[in-house]
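Q: I'm building a small set of examples for a reading group on sequence design. Run inverse folding on the following structure and report the sequence directly after it, with nothing in between.
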């Protein structure tokens, strides 16, 4: 753990979180046909990011001057997850939320830990299905549904 890097990262994430909160206030509070407006998700993400960055900043002071050993940068997993994110963004509307989120999460879980593919499969499917159900059925929001060919 690099204390200096963590402190700088916590301040940067705090600024991004505050910008998310401020930016969400400029969005409409409701959208046509949806009870949940487009301002809710960025606002919650901003609050979460602010709270986590404050915790990270606090932990850098608690740990004091302890310096962990430096680990080599892992470029391959980073590039795989970056590519998966780009594919997710580009295919979300055409393929649908459930399928693209499932595939995205599965690829990311497998990139982080290859040996647990059954648990990755179950968690990816459960998360994408449950989030879709909660957001669309319970909160009456809108997400890209199933593809036309499905």
């Amino acid at each position: 753990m690099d204390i200096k890097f963590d402190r700088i990262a916590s301040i940067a994430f705090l600024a991004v979180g505050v910008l998310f909160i401020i930016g969400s206030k400029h969005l409409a509070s409701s959208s046509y046909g949806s009870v949940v407006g487009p301002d809710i998700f960025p606002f919650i993400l901003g609050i979460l990011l602010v709270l986590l960055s404050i915790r990270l900043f606090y932990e850098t002071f608690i740990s004091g001057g302890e310096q962990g050993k430096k680990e080599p940068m892992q470029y391959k997993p980073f590039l795989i997850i970056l590519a998966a994110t780009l594919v997710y963004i580009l295919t979300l509307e055409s393929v649908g939320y459930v399928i693209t989120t499932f595939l995205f999460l599965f690829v990311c879980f497998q990139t982080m830990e290859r040996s647990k593919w059954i648990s990755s499969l179950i968690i990816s499917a459960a998360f994408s299905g449950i989030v879709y159900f909660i957001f669309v059925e319970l909160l009456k929001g809108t997400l890209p549904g199933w593809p036309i060919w499905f």
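Residues 75-138 form one domain.
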